[in-house]
Amino acid sequence: MTAAKATIQARGYNALSFRELAKEVGIKSASVHYHFPTKGDLGAALARRYTEDGATYLTELLAAPEDATWCMDRYTEIFRSALANDNRMCLCGIMSAELDDLPTEVRTEVDKFAAMNVGWLAKVLSRARPSARDQDLQEHAMAIFAAIEGAQLIARGCRDIGIYDRTIRAYRATGFIP
């Protein structure tokens, strides 16, 4: 799954090949099919694990008695670290770009990733704006999630992590993110 994740983060879901994956990890393609009968099964398992791992980390951040700015610093660093790792993308972000080509089971898991991130961001925003309405927090959280994924995508396309850094600083300077 690690090799499949790296392939998707670097080249997208459509670039994932059972044959190439098997060759990379030194097993037969049939062995991959044994564990994941279809590419959709593998893609869904990857997105599910990615979401679960992300949720675990983000829950730990919320458990810390820190402010919204501290939480957002750690959150934006997650996306930056993917770029710093061979100019890779957020797994579910890159799969979202190929949404029309994804099997239903993969789309479902990608949607769960987005919902998990937006829910977490809304909780962080409530630390900065405790009296804000839930709907306003949810909409602001979605805007932040989309903006950070977009900043990562543009930086990746330009092969310049500095674009990501400058964009995040601009978001913070304008008050868009705490």
TrEMBL record:
Official protein name in the record: TetR/AcrR family transcriptional repressor of nem operon
InterPro entries assigned to the protein according to its UniProt record, in alphabetical order: Homeodomain-like_sf, HTH_TetR, Tet_transcr_reg_TetR-rel_C_sf
Keywords: DNA-binding, Transcription, Transcription regulation
Keyword Hydrolase: no
Keyword Transcription regulation assigned: yes
Listed PANTHER family: HTH-TYPE TRANSCRIPTIONAL REGULATOR YJDC (PTHR47506:SF1), TRANSCRIPTIONAL REGULATORY PROTEIN (PTHR47506)
Gene3D superfamilies reported in the protein's UniProt record: Tetracycline Repressor, domain 2 (1.10.357.10)
Domain HTH tetR-type: start-end pairs: 1-54
DNA-binding residue intervals: 17-36
